Amino acid sequence: MSTLLRLATAGSVDDGKSTLVGRLLHDCKAILADQIAHVQTVTAQRPGARGDGTDFDFALLTDGLRAEREQGITIDVAYRYFATDKRSFILADCPGHVQYTRNTVTGASTADVVIILVDARHGVLEQTRRHLAVAGLLRVPHVVLAVNKIDLVGYDEAVFTGIAKDVNDLADQLGIADVHAIPVSALVGDNVVERSAETAWYDGPTLLEYLENATGRTDTSQQPLRFPVQYVIRPQTDDEYRDYRGYTGTVASGTVSVGDPVVVLPSGRRTSVAGIDKAVVTATSTAVAERPSAVAGEAVTVRLADDIDVARGSVIVAAEASPGTRRELAATVCWLSDRPLTVGARVLIKHTTTTAQAIVTKINGALDLDTLGVIDAAGLDLNDIGKVQLKVAAPLAADPYSSNAITGSFLLIDAHDGWTLAAGMIDDEEGELL
Amino acid sequence: MTATIDAPEAALNTTVTELDALESESVHVFREVAAEFERPVILFSGGKDSIVMLHLARKAFAPAGVPFALLHVDTGHNFPEVLAYRDRTVAALGLRLEVASVEEYIADGRLRERSDGTRNPLQTIPLLDAINGHRFDAVFGGGRRDEERARAKERIFSLRDEFGQWDPRNQRPELWSLYNGKHRPGEHVRVFPLSNWTELDVWHYIEREQIPLPSIYYAHERDVFERDGMLLAVGPYSQPRDGETVTRRVVRYRTVGDMSCTGAVASTASSAAEVVVEVAASELTERGATRADDRVSEAAMEDRKREGYF
Description:
Chain B: Belongs to the PAPS reductase family. CysD subfamily. The complex is a heterodimer. Chain A is α+β, with helices and mostly antiparallel strands. Chain A contains 7 helices and 25 strands. Chain A folds into 3 domains: 4-213, Rossmann fold, CATH 3.40.50.300; 226-321, Elongation Factor Tu (Ef-tu), domain 3 (Beta Barrel), CATH 2.40.30; 326-426, Translation factors (Elongation Factor Tu (Ef-tu), domain 3). In chain A, the strands form 5 sheets. In chain A, strands 7, 8, 9, 11, 12, 13, 15 and 16 form an 8-stranded antiparallel β-sheet that branches. Chain A has a 6-stranded mixed β-sheet with strand order 2-3-1-4-5-6, with helices on both faces. Chain A is globular. In chain B, 55% of the residues are buried. In chain B, helix 7 (199-209) packs antiparallel against helix 8. The radius of gyration of chain B is 19 Å and the shape is globular. Chain B has helices at 8-11, 16-36, 48-61, 80-93, 102-107, 124-134, 199-209, 272-281, 286-290, 300-307; strands spanning 40-43, 69-74, 97-101, 138-140, 157-160, 188-191, 220-227, 230-233, 246-253, 264-266. Chain B is an alpha/beta fold. Chains A and B meet through helix 2, helix 3, strand 2, helix 4 and strand 9 of A and helix 1, helix 2, helix 3 and helix 4 of B.
């Protein structure tokens, strides 16, 4: 049975990300004839085209916006879908330009694997460090280092080994456990899907082999139950569902089973699970069927044994492992806005299904990309990664991000124009996320 | 360079688990919108993607009904089977249907017929007027990222300004499964619950859930003529020009849009299971095979979307 793998690409401008993605899709036969014809036509019309039928810019397979094609850069994430015999992939092709780092954070937030490209001629650059930091911070399970344009350094093993060592050192500092380095040439196709004859010194998997065998999302079904309530269903119809009251949501972690003792936060009231329902719809009928349990990732409807106050924003948790609630958070944030963050800023926080007012009470420092240490900072600018403290107007049922990516993450939102200001990850008790 | 699909079974490997994951993600999106918006609406054309979208919406709120109205932007160039399906569905489920009619706009002069006869690009203004008129704040569309280059760039929650415009260079970051639906008065949010579904996923799901579709999605005989590599039906909105010969062929529709610019494909697939096999082996994308309006320029869809199109 195949499983879905979500990938994101990262790397500096001109490292060849879009070319690599185009190559991967093409060599996996995920590009269809009309798309190929389109790229051939556009490439052949460019100044400098050879015009002999061999012009083919792989990047055009993913750079879909007019401005991207004109400037030859990726501005926003492009999502692509492909499958091999072994599994299906959702790929987020992210921009390299520092100005668009927020889009890289977007792509990496849902990724199981981040592919970080480094140009073999240039080695580790500031964006490499930034993207590694983002991958580490978001706790992406696997990082692949693709040392690209290996053909342009004469397939030199020493160049590859040197870059792999630099990146491994950084990964150690950032607490990234799993980094695998592969020498590739996206343009030529070395070690992307086909093994290269030029890199006999490399005996690891090709990029596709690696991706086909990587373990997917961390299975959180064995962790304590967290079930943020999205919406309450009360049909109030004159049929068997007259008194139905169901709490909808997606199981964030753990397993919910009928009869489980649970606590509803923030009230802290104890009750138990009376039923778990999934929809059964036909052309003309709409009903639900009971299930014994549901696991992390499933969207279901839960009924409770007692008639207590439960609404959107409530979180149903395992009675024996409640996180409690908090109004003060220590967190690490990626600042995604052109407007700098300053102490005292009033923002909205969106955490699971709760949106509340919040005040940034303290900025504890920012990540210095050169040393990967935390330095003093009076504010945070676009693309900065910093440590902050927040006071929140409503109690939040929150966990550290390291133990739960869903109840441990949040957005900060500008209350005036609605812009997403920051991606936040709640620190461990010791505050050692960085 | 050739594009051969030498292992269609690879693409057939979509499993129950993957479909369940996609279903859960879409259901989650519907519930977020129901909870956070005042006046959502589902764009419903009677095409397969909007039908799957409505099916998912029903799942999200069962055993209660769908708490949204439907909106059909009607080009006036409809397949009769699709209109009949629409009306049957609305009646069976007790839904409210709003119709924004391109035909009316043309009749009273607010829009003018294009020289190429296609009405797909003309849908934008009636759509935006309907959104403003009904004060819809969240508008569900069946667009999928695998359909087209500009759509590949879409967020699941995608902000439109007070003119209905999309600014693809300045989209909000969309992290984890935290969807930010904040918007100012006059702005609205387009929501795409099928963002991560592929054409093949949609067909696998139609097969698994036994979702009825308008009959034109399956093989049938029809008088067609060939234009720009597409098979167009002979009908009130598309007639062969000189030199175009009409033949009776066994075809089906892979997409359903304005009759004047939606092509059929030669096919004998008469069930969802047979369509799955056909789609998995196809060497053309669904839009490449069937949509004349996307061939106008390199960025035809981006340009339409920027102006407020679906």
